[in-house]
Write a structure and sequence with these properties.
single chain; 311 residues; alpha/beta; Rossmann fold; 3-stranded antiparallel beta sheet; 10 helices; globular
């Protein structure tokens, strides 16, 4: 019986793209294709990663290309293309430039892989998922943005550091847009099932929430010449794995909400079930009034960004 390997294309051979290719190949999720406009860059990184496979013992064929024809028939496409933030730049400064990049990338991908699932990582995230949806013409269940997994991972890291416990026992719950309007929900965040407010004071939690919100900026300021890439790429690959293996994991994602949460047709951070049909379900939770108002403010920020899109 022939089992065709899955094909994962990563658009962009920068730090996020190359590291996503690394995680995906190491997990043997399928064969990996890295595409970039820079001649030689994806080819070189792909060959280097492929040459690690005998050492690490993974069977994933990794290729690099500048030609979208080579991405044909991808099962899943992780879009990391776009300009990264530089110190002092807001995510929104990137809007016009990255809209053009993500639009042209997505049109090429959709042409060659009409049945693919798209995971968007490019910033400003909530707007770029919208761009990819419009440019691809794909149904909304096949287009999703990576933000919440990363935000939750940062929150989980800071909680584990604060309590000096294993990150494996920490679960965190994050809603809303990526960045300053993010809405972490401590009462749904747990350590070995124990709600966070039973373990930390409100002040401590607020400090961790604040650090989580500014988590990307903290790393940009430390690196000075780039932005985070290990955790963002790992987060995108976790989403890809849930879809490719039909795991049906409930992960916080930028997913399309219309009636859900009364959003009215935008991609916003919500808990979503990811399986073989992409975004299979949006989980709606009852929010307290202060949580709801924070979430509504986050949705309003996304709506404002989308209205400014040069589409």
């Amino acid at each position: 019986m022939s089992m065709k390997r899955k094909k994962i294309t990563v658009v962009g051979a920068g730090f996020v793209g190359a590291t996503a290719a690394h995680w995906a190949a190491a997990k043997e999720l399928g064969d990996v294709c890295i595409i970039d406009i820079v001649d030689g860059l994806p080819q070189g990184k792909a060959l280097d990663l492929l040459e690690a496979s005998p050492v690490e013992g993974f069977d994933s064929y990794v290729t690099g290309t500048n030609d979208y024809a080579d991405t044909a028939d991808s099962d899943i496409v992780i879009i990391t293309a776009g300009l990264p933030r530089k110190p002092g730049m807001s995510r929104d400064d990137l809007l016009a430039k990255n809209t053009a990049i993500v639009k042209s990338v997505t049109e090429q991908i959709a042409k060659h892989s009409p049945n693919a699932y798209l995971i968007v990582v490019s910033n400003p995230l909530d707007a770029m998922v919208y761009v990819a949806h419009k440019a691809s013409g794909f149904p909304t269940n096949r287009v999703v943005g990576m933000a919440g997994v990363l935000d939750a991972a940062r929150f989980r890291t800071f909680i584990a550091m604060e309590l000096n416990v294993s990150v494996e026992d920490v679960n965190a719950f994050v809603l809303g847009g990526h960045g300053d309007s993010m809405v972490p929900l401590p009462r749904f965040s747990t350590v070995a099932g124990i709600p966070l407010p039973e373990l930390l004071s409100a002040e401590k939690i607020e400090a961790l929430v604040d650090r989580t919100r500014k988590g990307g900026g903290e790393i940009v300021n430390l690196l000075k010449t780039g932005s985070a890439f290990f955790a963002p790429s790992a987060s995108a690959v976790q989403m890809a794995e849930s879809i490719l293996k039909d795991k049906k994991r409930i992960l916080p994602c930028a997913a399309y909400c219309d009636k859900e949460y009364g959003v009215g047709g935008y991609f916003v951070g919500v808990p979503a079930k990811l399986g073989k049909d992409g975004v299979e379900e949006i989980i709606e939770i009852k929010m307290l009034p202060e949580e709801k108002s924070a979430f509504d403010a986050s949705v309003a920020a996304v709506r404002k960004l989308v209205k400014e899109l040069p589409l």
